[in-house]
Amino acid sequence: xxxxxxxxxxxxxxxxxxxxxxxxxxxxxxxxxxxxxxxxxxxxxxxxxxxxxxxxxxxxxxxxxxxxxxxxxxxxxxxxxxxxxxxxxxxxxxxxxxxxxxxxxxxxxxxxxxxxxxxxxxxxxxxxxxxxxxxxxxxxxxxxxxxxxxxxxxxxxxxxxxxxxxxxxxxxxxxxxxxxxxxxxxxxxxxxxxxxxxxxxxxxxxxxxxxxxxxxxxxxxxxxxxxxxxxxxxxxxxxxxxxxxxxxxxxxxxxxxxxxxxxxxxxxxxxxxxxxxxxx
Length: 280
Ligand SMILES: Nc1ncnc2c1ncn2[C@@H]1O[C@H](COP(=O)(O)OP(=O)(O)OP(=O)(O)O)[C@@H](O)[C@H]1O
Hints:
Layout: E1 18-29, E2 36-47, E3 51-55, H1 62-69, E4 77-82, E5 85-86, H2 92-102, E6 103-107, H3 118-129, H4 135-144, H5 160-173, E7 178-182, H6 190-205, E8 211-214, H7 218-221, E9 226-231, E10 234-240, H8 244-259
Parallel strand pairs: 3-8, 3-9, 6-7, 7-8
Antiparallel strand pairs: 1-2, 1-4, 4-5, 9-10
Helix pairs in contact: 3-5, 5-6
The protein binds adenosine-5'-triphosphate.
Adenosine-5'-triphosphate is lined by residues 29-30, 36, 38, 56, 58-64.
């Protein structure tokens, strides 16, 4: 079976560490004539200790993939594992616990609780789970994100960049197995966005965390180890050790393929549109 997303990193010198895995992952919304196939039999391995970016045109299925891998959305067919745990088929209560204990989330809209201060927002997931934060780790996160003098501020008293840094700290505070970030830099100016990306990068390099980030921004994707490109609900390409320019060039080909008239019969596919070994 093909495992395109892990392929560049699974040579024999690498320990086989898969943080999340999907096989035949299919997600349809609606029914009958209005059915939308958001994910079409996706096979993917998310390698542990790596920073993976997910890109693709609007509507290609990026958020749906993230939500299904994180157990936030049910699947129509196929299987999803978090580590060794198959999450497809788990009851909602078990899923809630698994998300709480093993996954960190960062969303574009921050999702901070307005009545709690920054520190309380950071530790909320652990408070709910009845866990004590690792103080040294939390202090390190706070200092690295430059939030030391903002801990007592409520979200409304923070800038957008500071709010996103609090959301970043919250995702990292419990040292989750896997961090899912959906457009984490979407609402930030470029300096604050770079800071958040730098911190996610450090979390992977220095702390061995695993990050999956959905983004529209080639520069943001350039901070990752591997970019997965989605098109029409399928993984159509991937790029290891990406640069912002290379990602931008690859994204332009989506524009061309969507704008171009249908190719005449017999025209060969554009090379590279599908990773080698990926099943049709
Ligand atoms: N709750 C839903 N009900 C119906 N259709 C949905 C729902 N959520 C997503 N879709 C459809 O599924 C497809 C994939 O959506 P998804 O949000 O995953 O794409 P995306 O690549 O994240 O898009 P964007 O970049 O615009 O955020 C789209 O055609 C979308 O309209």
